[in-house]
Amino acid sequence: MRKRILLIAGILCTPAVVVRAASVVPPTTAPAVAPASAQAQSLSPEQSQFFETKVRPILAQNCYKCHSLEAGKAKGQLVLDSRDGWQKGGEHGPVIVPGDTAASKLVGAVAYTDPDLQMPPKEKLSDQQIADLTAWVKMGAPDPRSAGAGGSKLTGLNDKARAHWAYQPVKPQAVPEVQDAAWVRNPVDAFVLAKLEQNGMKPNHPASREALIRRATYDLIGLPPTPQEVQAFLSDRSPNAFEKVVDRLLASPHYGERWGRFWLDTARYSDTTGAEQVRKEDYRYAYAWTYRDYVIKAFNDDKPYDQFLQEQIAADQLPDTDKNPDSLAALGFITVGKRFANPNDTIDERIDTLSKATMALTVSCARCHDHKFDPIPQADYYSLHGVFSSTIEPADLPLIGKSPVGKDRDDFEAKLAELEAKNRDIYYELVDSAGSEFRKKASAYLLAFVFNGKSDAAALIERNKLISQNNLDRGIFAGLRNVRKEDNVFAPL
Length: 493
Fold this sequence. Notes:
The chain has helices at 45-62, 83-88, 105-111, 127-138, 159-162, 187-198, 209-221, 227-235, 241-250, 253-266, 288-300, 305-314, 332-335, 343-359, 378-389, 407-440, 442-452, 457-470, 474-479, and strands spanning 67-68, 73-74.
């Protein structure tokens, strides 16, 4: 159905390089060199003054926009607006070795000694600024700034973000012990009761049987129970009476209709493209209902969630698709969204839907930059972009389900042929009628068209007079605006 080419995206990958410092002579006014072994916590007035007047302005004006907590960006996982930031370094290790300019990547980067690592990337620092940074590193990189603000605004490409609970694998949890063990009927109850007891609270009294069946019915099928269903439940005094109610509701086709709605909202299901600017295509999705029915059936069939996701993302690539072509309807997850005149915007919308629905992440932010809050680099976004951009939607859609045969098929084809013939006859009658009308009043139509191309009020008055006096068909007149400039007959107009 579609051809895919997996692109290996290395757009933002920077090879690890060894940077050698440029031989820049430090200013003679620089403070005395501090030992290279460690950063002093208490700085001399001369060291503080040198940092504040020479170093901090260079970093603030040239580095912070890409390497700071305040900007919320840490390209290469490096921040330079705190002492801990440069001490920790980036993805290729420390960038400053106090007292050793040759081993400090920062010095080589600003001196442009390596063509693969030049910072700032757009405009080289002045010779004096490079000399000041070199002198600062040589004196031990004294830095009076605090350790940092904890990285609350930092880009997601850091250890703190990767340690977030949402990115950790699920682990079995021990069922807590509770005081009122008799209240617990299943492990979930134990977790609920443990939290209640921790806060000095007790569970409410059990709901009445009328309330219980009403809640269950609304929850599972989105409809109220019938009076007969309520009476049957009240009359059933067996120990598993409620379980039988739940089983009946789960077996109802309304269950998939109720719970499939939540996924259809997540998948931004729609019967139309939602974009007026795509005028060359039908704004309607004539077969969107096949995806809707697929989702409903998946819930009713209790389809495994991993299979449910795989089919929606790549049903055409699964090995059993030939045996089960109905699963191709699952690809509506990708194709029923909004469309744009710019195909890259359509791809962005699909990446956004895919990531939000399956990972609860706004990956589309990485279209323009590494994600500021989640651990998603721009390279990941364009890896997904490569998959979607090499995905082809066929002009002839595949048949889902069995092709009708016999009398029903013959009746359909006969009526279709009748409608097509009728439409052709109407079209040719319309063309013949319009052509005859134009030939009768050709001079008036052409002259009105000429006046229409002028912007002055007098020409507009003459055009309207011609239309009124000759009873011109506005549909034919409007069609003349589509005449091409290179047309052999009408070009001179």
